[in-house]
Amino acid sequence: MKASAKVPHPDSQSVLLLTDLQVDFCPGGALGVPGGDEIIKTVNDYVRFFHSQRVPIIATRDWHPPNHCSFIEQGGPWPVHCVQTSRGAQFHPDLIVPPGTAIVSKATDPKKEAYSAFEGTTLEQRLRDMSAKTLYVSGLATDYCVKQTVLDACRLGIRVVVLEDAVRGIDATPGDCERAMREMREAGAILARSRDLGL
Question: What are the residue ranges spanned by the domains of the chain?
Fold first, then answer.
């Protein structure tokens, strides 16, 4: 396992990523992550901090058509969730989404699954346009969309900081979240908490 690098402080080439903090991924939603809503307060602390530092914020969302291939009815593994324009697809009502936050919609092709926020989206180009070198990642779920997004960012040569107190996983098989954290770290991601950034 790679040793953790020093946690970088956000600068003009940093971006905060809010991953899939949607109603359907929180308790009571169609595909609720256990305790998924419990990280909203911490995520909001990061949002306020990064926004005060004038760091761009990008929020990703599952934005499925009604016949998406990931749904059980279409032969996929998941119940219907995050259908475009539905209540479940909206961001959690307590989440702070500042003016100017860029929204990236993923998994919009009915025939393609997309756990990573880079797959079939404009995210990579947006980051290039912003001259982003460091991506701070929060959101849901650690062992699926967060992990795949982080691994893709690392492959693209982007420095990634996983805000481990602002992610939460499903852990369908006990240990999934721990394995996901280890995999992200081994890919080069830096793990950090709010105290590491002086929050």
Answer: 14-197
